[in-house]
Write a structure and sequence with these properties.
The structure holds three protein chains of three kinds.
Chain A: H1 26-41, E1 47-48, H2 62-71, E2 77-82, H3 89-101, E3 105-106, E4 115-119, E5 132-136, H4 150-158, H5 163-176, E6 187-189, E7 193-195, E8 214-219, E9 224-228, E10 234-236, E11 263-267, E12 274-278, H6 281-289, H7 300-306
Parallel strand pairs in A: 2-3, 2-4, 4-5, 5-8
Antiparallel strand pairs in A: 1-9, 6-7, 6-10, 8-9, 11-12
Helix pairs in contact in A: 1-2
Chain B: H1 19-35, E1 41-42, H2 55-64, E2 71-73, H3 81-90, E3 94-95, E4 103-107, E5 131-135, E6 145-148, E7 156-158, H4 167-175, E8 183-188, E9 191-195, E10 200-203
Parallel strand pairs in B: 2-3, 2-4, 4-5, 5-8
Antiparallel strand pairs in B: 1-9, 6-7, 6-10, 8-9
Helix pairs in contact in B: 1-2
Chain C: H1 2-6, H2 9-25, H3 35-41, H4 43-53, H5 58-67, H6 72-83, E1 101-106, H7 132-135, H8 158-163, H9 194-203, H10 206-217, E2 226-239, E3 248-265, E4 273-282, H11 286-299, H12 315-321, H13 324-332, H14 339-373
Antiparallel strand pairs in C: 1-2, 2-3, 3-4
Helix pairs in contact in C: 3-5, 4-5, 4-6, 5-6, 9-11, 10-11
Classes of the chains: A alpha/beta, B alpha/beta, C alpha+beta.
Chain lengths: 310, 206, 374
């Protein structure tokens, strides 16, 4: 952005701006807002929308950015994560974008945020009533890997014909002895629409069921918005004899000793030494501040997390 | 499409003073209400609309309706200051055929148009269904409705006044064919309650 | 440590941008390239960026090329992102290519056509020998000779030449036709009508369309194309402002148009006619206009009762994959961290290997016991 610095809390559309408040023009925001309301009215259904070209590339979160731009206001507190972490490069970049164009306070604290934009994770701390979770979605169509044609998949959703998806899961069981698929695992919303939860690990799927927060999903390149209202049934597909299961680790987090969080594997050297640390950087830092210490507490990685992301 | 005549702006009341900020705030209230059927959104900060519209309905129109969304307006408001206000601030085309409308503004005090005449959406594109903004005298004091479904943890109750006794049965028949169905915004005074097509309603007494 | 690199944060981004700016400038001893130089001397790059960027502004396209270090898809992206921030005043009146001030006009179907063949500024008959005089910074070349006769003000298109005999299909223009589909405001929808397809092709990646057109020529959804006419020159762009109520000229732009003749069909019970494909692009870009015309014709397969057998005839395949900004973004987004998904894969793969190794070991033991028992 070549925009001049803005005064904090400058009135929306003040003459100091080179661009609209939250970047999008008002007509585009209204179009996205209408799509959000229809997405909430038909949970799990993918609403086509006139996605705009954003100043970041497709694949870098253009859908999530457009959703955030359509809902955000100066009273919001905005958190942005990528792979669970606040300080990943793209999360930093998007957070800076909204701090600049929307005069919004930012935070790493999951509990303090009103809008949480994310790529590939749901935070470990349970989401609360009043929070909005915005997911960046590369491929909104859960059936796309099985059927490349939009005309076909749209018909499948229209008539809730999801046999193809079950066959695919069953073929997994034949090939591997269990259901494969570690991320982007399909869910059924309110027992009607099959939905891709975006490439979150299936570890995070249960967090969506009867979640008190609003879940909004934006796919910019594919030009789709969908949503799960709070307190909505979200069921991960499975079979009676092969029930849905989430990832688990033999180790705890090396830094904070958490045993119930999603872990990243960090390669320490080429001698097969690894450490496992929380993917959710805020969760890990909060636990360490509370005095929890893992087997490698004090490792240089922990100090990195202590620097506040800007 | 209804013929569009020149607007008499001599008596025009203002819309949002700061459209960006105010429409964002109004939208968030409406979004929260849509996500939680039965939750009352407070739109008291919205501008005073002309006679014939209540504040919540006016706020919903200013926030959501524009040149891309044909509006069906209650015939009782045709030629009124409210019509001029909507045409000027929303720049929306007005339509006379219910099926052509994305949005409708309906006064429950006049004859309720047949709900089935509105666009119920397409099997592949259920988002194309109409949104009805229905103006009521009050959101409390009427027959109690029990609401269940997405957005509601267990059950929530509202008691809107002013809807005909057959209204909810008519609506129930339409939304029984989910994913088809219409989405409702009930507006009274400064308040708005959203009833999307997924909400299951039991009427429990007068 | 690799982990640090992806956790670079703000400082890493700022430093990367500084490095990019330095690299863009190259050796400071070499004079800096001006936007005007790019606009004037890299015209075909500017034309491509304007065409795929859906924005006719040579100055901004040249700036985008400079900023993108000559990476045209990146420049196209810059121009597109700028375009979306512009207010929208309305749609122009359709341009009349029949009234084009032609610089080049060639028909491969006829030896001569009214208005004549005009070779114009083309690479077509240059010998592709590197011109080392250009490397010596040759200055201003001698002016090209001016023709004795002036060209006619209006050159009839090949379509109008044929119209009387009815040999060529002539799409009817309905006065009450709805506004054309606009992909910049609405998402792709299927079945896609021709207006939507043509807009997507006009914005589409030149290389992708070229390959598709080529595949069609080689028999993958053969369209037997014959270049009815290709013309390049300037057309005037008209606009009717609401408050004036009459048309004013707002621009004079260079465009390239191509009509491909391709196969016969009896449309709506008419006698058999040549069917056509159409290409139109900003600037001078014959490769793009011709490819577009071939692919347009191929995409009409279903409407003309032909079997859809090849990629170039499949509108979902072509339209969903033709946009360079979408394709480039999604392919390159794989650079972003995916370690959450990767970790999920690793967990699955390790467990699978462990289980299968155990199963094999158990089987081996059983076999060994069997052998021992025999």
């Amino acid at each position: 952005m070549t925009a001049p610095p803005t005064t904090p809390n400058a009135p929306a559309n003040s003459e100091e701006r080179y661009y609209n408040y939250a970047y999008l023009d008002e007509q585009t925001k209204r179009m996205i807002r209408r799509a959000i309301l229809k997405a909430l009215a038909v949970p799990g259904y993918q609403v086509p929308f006139g996605s705009r070209e954003m100043p970041v590339p497709y694949g870098w979160g253009t859908g999530g950015i457009q959703l955030t731009a359509a809902i955000i206001g100066p009273d919001d507190v905005y958190k942005c994560i990528d792979q669970g972490a606040d300080d990943t490069t793209n999360a930093v970049s998007i957070r800076r974008f909204f701090a600049t164009v929307a005069d919004v306070a930012t935070t790493e604290d999951t509990g303090a945020a009103t809008i949480i934009q994310s790529r590939h994770r749901i935070p470990e701390r349970p989401l609360e009533d009043g929070q909005v979770m915005v997911f960046q979605v590369p491929q909104p169509e859960p059936l796309r890997g099985l059927e490349p044609r939009e005309t076909e998949t749209r018909a499948m959703h229209a008539y809730a014909e999801y046999g193809l998806q079950y066959v695919s899961l069953y073929e997994n069981i034949s090939a591997f002895g269990r259901i494969a698929g570690g991320a982007g695992y399909p869910v059924l919303i309110d027992e009607r629409y099959l939905m891709s939860p975006s490439p979150i690990p299936k570890f995070d799927n249960p967090k969506m069921d009867m979640c008190p927060a609003i879940l909004l999903f934006g796919a910019g390149r594919e030009k789709r918005i969908y949503a799960v209202p709070p307190y909505t049934r979200v069921r991960s597909l499975d079979f009676e004899d092969y029930p849905f299961e989430v990832q688990s680790w033999e180790q705890c987090c090396a830094l904070c000793a958490a045993t119930d969080s999603y872990l990243d594997e960090v390669v320490l050297d080429d001698q097969n030494n690894r450490m496992f640390v929380c993917s959710d950087s805020n969760h890990c830092a909060t636990r360490r501040a509370q005095g929890h210490a893992g087997p490698m507490a004090g490792h240089s990685l922990a100090h990195l997390d202590e620097e506040p992301a800007q | 499409m209804a013929t569009q005549t020149a607007l008499d702006l001599s008596q025009l009341l203002p819309g949002f003073a700061d459209p960006t900020r105010e429409s964002q705030a109004a939208f968030r209230a409406i979004m929260n209400a849509t996500a939680r059927p039965g939750l009352v959104a407070d739109l008291a900060a919205a501008p005073t609309p002309p006679a014939g519209l209540n504040r919540a309905a006016g706020a919903a129109a200013l926030t959501l309706v524009d040149q891309d969304t044909p509006l069906w307006l209650d015939p009782g408001l045709h030629g009124s200051a409210a019509e001029t206000w909507l045409r000027f601030h929303c720049s929306c085309p007005l339509v006379t055929a219910q099926v052509d409308a994305n949005f409708a503004i309906i006064d429950a005090g006049s004859d309720m148009p047949a709900l089935a005449e509105f666009n119920q959406g397409d099997a592949r594109y259920p988002d194309q269904a109409a949104t009805l903004i229905i103006m009521l005298p009050a959101l409390a004091g009427g027959p109690t409705l029990e609401l269940r479904g997405p957005g509601i943890a267990d059950v929530t109750r509202i008691a809107p006044q002013g809807l005909s006794p057959g209204f909810w049965a008519e609506r129930a028949e339409l939304v029984a064919h989910f994913q088809y169905g219409i989405d409702l915004k009930l507006c009274a005074g400064d308040q708005l309650v959203s009833i999307p097509r997924t909400t299951r309603i039991i009427t429990t007494g007068a | 440590m690799a982990y640090v690199a992806v956790k670079g944060g703000e400082r890493a981004i700022t430093n990367a941008h500084a490095w990019l700016a330095e690299t863009r400038r190259g050796n400071p001893a070499v004079p800096e390239l001006s936007v005007a130089q790019i606009r004037e001397q890299m015209q075909l790059a500017v034309d491509r960026v304007m065409a795929e960027g859906s924005c006719h502004d040579p100055e901004l396209a040249a700036l985008a090329i400079k900023q993108a270090r000559g990476d045209l898809p990146e420049a196209i992206f810059l121009l597109r992102a700028y375009r979306t921030t512009l207010p929208r005043f309305g749609a122009s009146v359709p341009v009349e290519t029949e009234h084009m001030a032609v610089q080049r006009r060639v028909s491969a179907a006829f030896k001569d056509i009214p208005g004549g063949q005009v070779l114009g500024p083309t690479f077509d008959y240059t010998h592709r020998l590197l011109d080392f005089k250009l490397a010596a910074e040759g200055g201003v070349p001698a002016a090209a000779p001016v023709a004795d006769e002036t060209m006619p003000a209006a050159m009839p298109t090949i379509a109008s030449v044929f119209a009387q005999e009815g040999l060529l299909e002539t799409p009817a223009v309905a006065e009450d036709a709805p506004e054309p589909f606009d992909l910049t405001r609405e998402p792709m929808a299927f079945p896609a009508a021709r207006d939507q397809r043509l807009q997507a092709l006009a914005r589409g990646d030149e290389g992708f369309l070229l390959s598709l057109a080529y595949s069609s020529q080689r028999g993958w959804g053969s369209t037997h194309p014959l270049c009815g006419e290709i013309r390049m020159g300037n057309v005037s762009v008209g606009f009717v402002p609401e408050e004036l109520g009459f048309e004013i000229e707002i621009a004079d732009v260079t465009m390239t148009e191509c009509l491909m003749l391709s196969g016969f069909a009896s449309l709506d019970g008419e006698l058999p006619q040549y069917t056509t494909g159409y290409g139109l692009t900003f600037g001078h870009n014959e490769r793009k206009a011709m490819s577009m015309a071939i692919v347009d014709r191929a995409l009409r397969a279903a409407e003309l009762g032909e079997e859809v057998v090849a990629p170039c005839q499949d509108s979902e395949f072509v339209l969903y994959h033709s946009d360079t900004v979408e394709a480039s973004g999604f392919v390159q987004h794989l650079k972003l961290p995916h370690y959450v998904d990767f970790q999920a894969d690793l967990l699955f793969l390790r467990r699978l290997r462990k289980e299968q190794a155990a199963a094999r070991a158990a089987a081996a033991t059983t076999d060994a016991m069997k052998e021992a028992a025999e």
